[in-house]
Amino acid sequence: METKATDSRTRALGITGNAEPASAGAAVTTALETQAAPQPRAGGAAPRTLTLVLGGARSGKSHFAEQLATDHAVLTRGPVTYIATARHDAEPPDEEMELRIALHRARRPADWALVEEPMHLADALYAHARHDGCILVDCVTLWLNNLIFDESRAYPEHGVITPPPAFTEEIDALLTALPMLPGHVILVSNEIGFGVVPTGAITRFYVDELGRLNQKLAAAADRVRLLVAGIPVAVKGADPA
Question: Does the pLDDT of residue 8 top 60, yes or no?
């Protein structure tokens, strides 16, 4: 395991693994496109940047994050790697989730690389981060769900929730990796703490743990944007010049 982690960190310093190409589709159209198009930056690689994009369901957070990645590629002429955390092994198959995945896939630019990693997010980031590149992770919300329900783990409706060991290990690995990664990393996560407090113990645990994780990610991030009805609200950090 240590050898694997070391190799991944080495690749993060400038050597990346190959990823499957993302499916071709229509370019994303958002209100941001009405602004002046970013101009290519001489010299290639941009400074190391971590951006956290938060929002509720259908808030426009994924569209906004995709536009950030597109702008980065225009500025640096560097590659974009899309890390998808959704699982495809649900039994019975989740047709609604598969449809959402297909829609996301169809609108991504054809030259973006696709990496599907539902569990070991830190390893994927180490393997694909590079100085002139951009990584978009969509999303942290599903990734945390995967960690909690790894191997179809069941939980009581009431009482104390004890997640599997991988839950803490993978979160710690992610928080350790983020300050070390070169290039621009964009994380998409849901803000789900504004609603009614859930009645079930496991649902409350999930809402609480996602809120705690979002706080830690926001503390580590250079920029935080909250999407409200498709409009990005600056929570932390200025937009690049």
Answer: no
What Cα–Cα distance (Å) separates residue 9 from each residue in 17, 73, 186?
A: 12, 23, 18
* Residues in CB range of 106: below 8 A, 6 or more apart: 23, 25, 26
d(CA 237, CA 31): 21
- Residues marked active site are found at 104
Within 8 A by CB and 6+ apart from 234, the residues are: 223, 224, 225
CA-atom Rg of the chain in angstroms:
18
Beta strands in the chain (DSSP E): 20-21, 49-55, 80-84, 113-116, 134-138, 184-190, 223-228, 231-236
Q: At residue 21, does pLDDT exceed 50?
A: no
| 13-22, 31-40, 205-214: range with lowest mean pLDDT | 13-22
pLDDT of residue 36: 43
Domains of the chain: 2-23+51-235 (3.40.50.300)
pTM: predicted TM-score of the whole model, two decimal places: 0.79
Nearest by Cα to 170 from 132, 209, 218: 209
Instruction: Give the residue among 58, 227, 72, 44 at the shortest CA–CA distance from 135.
Output: 72
Residue 84 has pLDDT above 50, yes or no: yes
pLDDT at 26: 33
B/e letters for 39-60, b = 16+ CB within 10 Å, e = fewer, are eeeeeebbeebbbbbbbbeebb
